[in-house]
Amino acid sequence: MRRSIVHMDLDTFFVSCERLNNSQLEGIPLIIGGGDRGVVSSCSYEARRFGVRSAMPTAMALKLCPQAKVIKGDMERYSQLSHLVTEVIQEKAPIVEKASIDEFYLDITGMDRFHGCYQWTNDLAQRVLKETGLPISFALSINKTVSKIGTGEGKPKGNLDIPEDQVRNFLNPLSIQKIPMVGDVTFQLLSRIGIRTIQTLSEMPAEVLQRMIGKNGVEIWKKANGIDNNPVEPYTERKAISSEHTFTQDTIDIVHLKSILSGMVEKLAFQLRSEEWLTSTVVVKIRYSNFDTETRQCKIAYTSADHLLTKKVLGLFDLLYQRRMRLRLVGIRFSGLVRGTYQIDLFEDTEEMLSLYAAMDKMKSRYGYDSVMRCAGASLKPNSKDIILKRKS
Description:
Blueprint: E1 5-10, H1 13-21, E2 30-33, E3 40-43, H2 45-48, H3 58-64, E4 69-71, H4 75-92, E5 95-100, E6 103-107, H5 117-132, E7 136-141, H6 144-154, E8 160-161, H7 167-171, H8 184-191, H9 198-202, H10 206-213, H11 217-224, E9 240-251, H12 254-274, E10 277-288, E11 293-303, H13 306-320, E12 327-335, E13 338-339, H14 342-345, H15 351-367, E14 372-374, E15 387-389
Parallel strand pairs: 2-4, 7-8
Antiparallel strand pairs: 1-6, 1-7, 2-3, 5-6, 9-12, 10-11, 10-12, 10-13, 14-15
Helix pairs in contact: 4-5, 10-11, 12-13
């Protein structure tokens, strides 16, 4: 049976959320993000016409579109509305994968025996709009790759149906940048040898592409040829991530304790960013040598940045550790998780800070978690003075 896979994406999600609250924002250039030294997290189509894009420095965006209105953003509200949309979709769709805070994959194979898959999906999109007030675009095709590309090509409000016999005709004229997994580096590499369209890429031998760009070469070649057998994974919300450290000998060394906590935060924060989670609740746990156990927690703005999380964790530890007694265990728990990336969370961050985290995470992913880390006891702000590289033997 031919698969029927839908990709649904909430149109300019953050902007749409803000316009639900304030109708005066309709039709005007709108930027969601930080201050003059921050970055654009999202922008309206009106702002995009001036060249404004996500991840662009806010100062540059305002030079391109000086009449734009800048709003800091409210991740908690965005998360609540995302959950509402998820409930509407899950109520109707047989299999739903929530890919991020504002996009979903649906496997509706076999639904065409009723009203037709396209009509069924269109009805669901209209239901989302009616019940949440948020516009949503979609594309229907034979797999996740083609449907995701289709959604991007159809925006805004241009919902597409790409049957199997039209997949190649749809993909061939598009830029290779439309393919998931093709980033700026890969695009520049392929462009230099004249490969700029998906058709040209699809006609290359897969082995040549693999030699050029490594292990992902074959996967990119498959996507260029409309091949993607990845299943739609049923969505389940993760509740929390945590870590505990039990000492071989009970300790009262505050400097050592805080160093351990800082390392635990850094590891958990990297996990959050790798899995695209943001946390809103920080919990610190300690266990004394007599086995008395105490915890303390606080709510924070959604984040996955270790310099912010470390500051909260160490502050909670100072409030929690009041007895002059040795500790046998310390633990950290991040809960209240929502889907999202580091970039869309840190509305007050600078472009330099985002670039630093991106570079650190890239090194950790490639060479291992401990290839780059912070010096114990250094400043909590991420700068060149508190980062160290560990040489691999």
